[in-house]
Amino acid sequence: MAGNTSRPGVSVTSRVLAILAAFDERHRRLTLSELARRADLPIPTAHRLANELVAGGALTRRPQGDYVVGRLLWDVGLLAPVEADLRRVAEPILHDVHATTRATVHLAVRDGDHVLYLERMRGRASVPVMSTIGSTLPMHSTGVGKVLLAHAPPDVRERVAARLTRVTPYTVTQPPILAEQLERVRRDGYATTSEEMTLGAASLAVPVVRDDEVVVAAIGVVVASLRRDRARLLAALQVAARGISRQLSER
Length: 251
Hints:
By secondary structure, the chain is α+β, with helices and mostly antiparallel strands. It has helices spanning 12-21, 32-39, 43-56, 71-77, 81-101, 143-150, 154-162, 175-188, 230-250; strands at 59-61, 67-69, 104-111, 114-121, 136-138, 191-194, 202-209, 215-223. Keywords: DNA-binding, Transcription, Transcription regulation.
């Protein structure tokens, strides 16, 4: 939540940023009163600024009257150098993975303590998928998230482990078990999940490593089951990750 932005003397920019920061993974839709409370603003001020943000495309007001993040913020976010280069380089390679596997294919990066999806190519409609381009999900319950969490700084891993939420009955919520899984990810070079984010879906993901050995992203697939095709899917992802890494290094 923002600081004391209801106090006199705080700039308009700070108040606008407070409104935008009021949205997070658990607060994707906010009524005016909720928005004002989370931004620590008087309701009239929040109403005026929110309406200006709606007019500019940064927020959208739904028919029910509540507010959601607008398309403008996502479009601007894509101009960040890392994300823009990643998507530009990865897109044709991910299309090849999608054509080969017919699975849902993801490109994701770490955004604080969450995983941010930069690209999604939808596979078989029968496999349920929670992600959308621009959305964030918990790292501990997704394949790409576990890859990114395994290579995140220790303080990030500690924060995530301290608040493991149960998404499905199969989500890992015990820190020691998660720590063992992350160690295995670092050792084996890939992560898997089975119905931890969505019932009826399994995922497999690998890191995208820059030439300085820094993990900058993860790519993964979501399928109904990994029992039969794990080796084939893993090989396709590893080839794709090497291709993305090579092109990033050349740039």
